[in-house]
Amino acid sequence: MKVLLINAPFPFEESPTPPFGLVSLAGYLLREGIEVIIEDYIIQPYSRDRVKKVLREFRPDVVGATAVTMNVKKALSILKEFREEDPVLATVMGGPHVSFDADGILKNNPFVDFIVRGEGELTFTELLGHLKAGADYSGVKGVSYRRNGAIVHNEDRPLIPDINILPGPARHLVPLSRYRALGFPISMVTSRGCPYKCIFCVGARMVGHRVRNFDVGRVVDEFEALSRMGFIQINIVDDLFTANQARCMEICDEIVRRGIVHPWGAFARVDSVSPQLLEKMKKAGCTALCFGIESGDQAILDRIKKKTTLEKCRIAARICREAGIEPMMSFILGLPGETAETARTTMEFARTLSNSYGFHVLSPFPGTEVRDRADEYGMKVLTDDWDLYDANHAVMDPGSIAPEEVERLANWFINGITEYIDDLEPRKARGEALSESDERALAGVRSFRFNRTLILEELIERYTGITNGGGRDALLLDFVDYLARAFGLSRDEINDQVQRLLNHNCIVLRSDAQGARVCWT
After folding, report:
1. Count of other CB atoms within 10 angstroms of residue 296
2. Rounded to the nearest 5°, which phi and psi values hold at 20?
3. Burial profile 328-346: b = 16 or more Cβ within 10 angstroms, e = fewer
């Protein structure tokens, strides 16, 4: 079997990382003898011509797409175009959104053949075996499909008891150099599962309440390999990395023992950290921990089943700062019971905890308790336009504050950041002295914008290079001139950006009998 996996696009502003779920699935498929490629349309521009090209060159038997709620419509539109180009191609979707909206997806999208619900490795591989053999798939656990016009949901597949049976992710299948160029981090996981039951989160329903761990040695092996890939940071994206403090300390001790030096961050709960743990995490290279605080109102925290207190939030922020780790605090506006007063309280509380915090608007994703029991919480889902489920739009009426007011408060915060960033360049142009942090922010914005254009307009792919007779220096001069014309920027600024790409191993200069050119690594 030949399988094409698709990572549907969503905005660069969401700071995407290499698609961990897809590369993990691909790693398992490869081990099982299945030929796999990944089309990553976040950093590879999508077009109908590209669809035709990949079908012509790879000739897949099955195309599968993953999606979260905010990009599920885009994933569906891409699958539809693949089916239109190849009507006999089997199509499969997986991921959190479709796992809990299988009925809606199959009912409204006749070009989708199968939904893989929950963990995908075993289910998708078994489904592929049945498709290859032309066998009946009614016994494949975890699959939804149509039969004689009716939608069928096979029984759920139990979660994988020991996740150490899974091979490592096949990250070589995605163009990592473009993520490096954009300055984005790279992700890994050390466990699956979350023991908590927050009503706005679908994580535990996807991967279970029991935390299943990868072996410490395997975790640090992967961490060590990632530390050599040139990314600015490694993100440990477990639902709750600090669920088991003793295990976290063991991982940190092993990182230190091996002498691995690389910045990293993780997700934590305010009641799952201690001074002793944070000291070890800092020594092992942890620079930031992200805490989902959610609200500055205790009654709302209790209502959403967060099982934390405001005092625990204060303590966690303080001991992080004392350990030299940046506490990054995340809040949700529009939760059950939200009022104008509680929203203001939350925004004021955020400022007392940390300099790093952000506000999102509640998105009632399929599979969440707040969506399934909206009436009981006195709330109302306003729309199923999944494009609006980006945590920036009010898609739910809390019942005690106008949705427009929730969105206005979130936008006030977001617009403040945007205005600050947009003002840096004019301030520098006026000769105003910027702080060190402002200079770093401005440099980061310039690099991001440069590389975003470089990727989306495929400027490297369109560069023809030089013919024989010129060496490395001649190629660099010509490439810089080419980009200076394309961007309308000075050669000095372009040269700085090109040197950064070379230094971070994002691009390479290659030559052969026909000449010399620049390529992504």
Report:
1. 22
2. -60, -45
3. bbbbbbbbbbbeeebbebb
Residue 104, pLDDT > 70, answer yes
Segment 375-402 shows an average pLDDT of 96
Q: Could you tell me which residues are beta bridge partners of residue 85?
A: none
Nearest residue to 8 (alpha-carbon basis) of 88, 95, 84: 95
Phi-psi region of 367 (alpha: psi -120 to 50; beta: other; left: phi over 0): left
Label residue 422 by pLDDT band (50, 70, 90).
confident
* Residue 94 structure tokens: 């997986």
Last residue within a domain, chosen from 153, 176, 202: 153
Same domain for 463 and 395, yes or no, is no
- Each residue's pLDDT tens digit, 427-462: 888 988 889 888 988 888 899 999 999 999 999 999
Are both 135 and 189 inside the same structural domain? Answer: no
- Determine which of 12-21, 112-121, 262-271 has the lowest per-residue pLDDT on average: 12-21
- Is residue 12 in some structural domain? yes
Average pLDDT, the chain: 95
The model's pLDDT over 196-228, given as tens digits with 9 standing for 90+, comes to: 999 999 999 999 999 999 999 999 999 999 999
Residue 469 confidence (pLDDT): 64
pLDDT band at 415 (very low <50, low <70, confident <90, very high): confident
- Identify the domain boundary among 371, 401, 431: 401
Name the domain count of the chain: 3
Using the 8-state DSSP alphabet, how is residue 355 labeled?
S
The one-letter code for the residue type at 301 is: L
Residues contacting 127, CB < 8 A, separation 6+: 92, 114, 116, 137, 140, 143
Residues 381 and 259 both lie in one domain: yes
Question: Residue 63 CB: number of other CB atoms within 10 A?
Answer: 26
Q: Which helix (H) or strand (E) holds 168?
A: none
Give the range of the structural domain holding residue 130, as residue numbers without chain letter.
2-153
Q: Within 13 Å of residue 446, how many CA atoms lie on the same side as its CB?
A: 18
Mean pLDDT of 294-299: 98
Given a contact cutoff of 8 angstroms between Cβ atoms, the answer to whether 106 and 115 are in contact is yes
| Three-state secondary-structure class, residue 97 | helix
DSSP for 414-447, please give it.
Answer: HHHHHHHHHHHHHHHHTTPPPPHHHHHHHHHHHH
Are both 137 and 219 inside the same structural domain? no
Place of tokens 């040139």: 230
C-beta pairs of 458-461 under 8 Å, 24+ apart in sequence: 458/45, 459/483, 459/486, 460/507, 460/518, 460/519, 460/520
- For residue 30, is it left (φ>0), alpha (ψ between -120 and 50) or beta? alpha
